[in-house]
Amino acid sequence: MGIAVIWSVIAILVRWIFSKRRGAISYDSSDQTALYIRMLGDVRVRSQVGFEPERRGSHPYLGVDFRTLHSRAESAGSIPARRIRRLFSFQRHLLSSRFLRGAPHLNPLHILDEDYCGQAKCMLEKVGSWNFDIFLFDRLTNGNSLVTLTLYLLSHYGLIELFQLDMVKVHRFLVLVQEDYHNHNPYHNAVHAADVTQAMHCYLKEPKLAKSLTSCDILLGLLAAATHDLDHPGVNQPFLIKTNHYLAALYRNTSVLENHHWRSAVGLLRETELFSHLPAEDSLNMERQLGSLILATDISRQNEYLSKFRTHLDQEDLCLGNASHRHFILQMALKCADICNPCRPWELSKQWSEKVTEEFFRQGDIEKKHKLEVSPLCDSETNSIADVQIGFMTYVVEPLFAEWARFSDTRLSQTMLGHLCLNKASWNAMQPEASGSSEELESEQEASSRALPQGSPQS
């Protein structure tokens, strides 16, 4: 098969998958990179329009898209290479989606792609393992971990058939979700969303949930996990508030990021018309419940949810036959999935710890540059990865997962608590000898933990 024919086939597939997408998608035989560049340009324009600050405060840098503050300038010579990589990434993504549908490969020339897809498929067979390496999976899918994993899970639970979802719309929705995560964020990116979605799947398999949750609950849980940090700017809520960012004004300084994630997800649901075949009331109800789940990830409300959870467990009055109780458990499951990194095996947990701390410190550098008060945990000169993580584990993660283990006393819960204990000990061993007393160190960590619920970047 000639190269021109191959590219023509790819062009037809792209038009089919992204039908109704705003902006034209065309193929130029004289420029084989033009196909995906034009589609990507359409995605980027839409994203930037949705985030461009409309209100300016007293600071001169507020007109800047915060997503670009972290990115390094690329040389002119590197741009074509980057675009070509994105083109091949999309081609590989089309191939990787084939095995999810059980379709055979038509072209035997893509040996490398077939090899990578085969390894990714083997990993998906163990997607319920708590040791699942999302970083490796993202490499095997060439940066398409969120789309590939979520599509697989929707098929695994039979949700596509049950809800009569259009596969074209499902695929289009997931691609747009993945594109709306900012890959230059060290932590809040599409890989984090894929990791949370995989963790959510592990929790949905737990006996108490597996025998009680409805198919609608499962669909909402997976969609909420995949979209819970959609279009995250890489800075926290206090930063948006003190810089008079328009999102802070829009949501009146309350759950600013979480509201934005939810509204962004709803925007994509409506743009792709994923639920357009459902009665209008059902579709709106799905959007509202999705919002309720995503808003629960606001870490400033951590104590509120934890106290409610603890009261239910103390009174032993949780009834998963009750729709509101099931929804509350889904909220707690998503909260656990969102901050479960310290409960992963050390090799995975350490990578996540380094990434989230890097994002903290990047915000701190921006605040220093513009002479703003540096947010707690964001000053690289006074904090280390170890002390940030120890405080976070002690005052945020341990209380939540201790209560989750009371609710679901299973092998997975004990495994998570075991990893948490070992990881905390590992970070403790890395700490340099403190000049002050251990009581002073504990006091500093407690102060840091109190600062976290006021809008930590890890939320």
Overview of this protein structure:
The protein has 459 residues and is an all-alpha fold. 64% of the residues lie in helices and 0% in strands. It is built from 21 helices and no strands. It has helices spanning 3-17, 34-51, 78-101, 111-124, 134-140, 145-156, 159-162, 167-179, 190-204, 207-210, 215-227, 237-242, 246-250, 256-272, 280-295, 302-315, 323-338, 346-369, 385-407, 411-430, 438-451. Residues 20-79, 82-92, 105-112, 434-438 and 447-459 have low confidence and may be disordered.
Helix and strand topology:
Layout: H1 3-17, H2 34-51, H3 78-101, H4 111-124, H5 134-140, H6 145-156, H7 159-162, H8 167-179, H9 190-204, H10 207-210, H11 215-227, H12 237-242, H13 246-250, H14 256-272, H15 280-295, H16 302-315, H17 323-338, H18 346-369, H19 385-407, H20 411-430, H21 438-451
Could you give a short account of the major beta sheet? none
In terms of DSSP E residues, the strand content is under 5%
Estimated structural class:
mainly alpha
- Gross morphology is globular
Q: First CA to last CA: what distance?
A: 50 Å
What are the low-pLDDT stretches, counting only 5+ consecutive residues below 50? 20-79, 82-92, 105-112, 434-438, 447-459
Could you state the order of secondary-structure elements as H and E? Answer: HHHHHHHHHHHHHHHHHHHHH
Helix content: 55-70%
User: Mean pLDDT, as a whole number?
Assistant: 81
Count of helix runs: 21
Number of strands: 0
Radius of gyration (CA) equals 22 Å
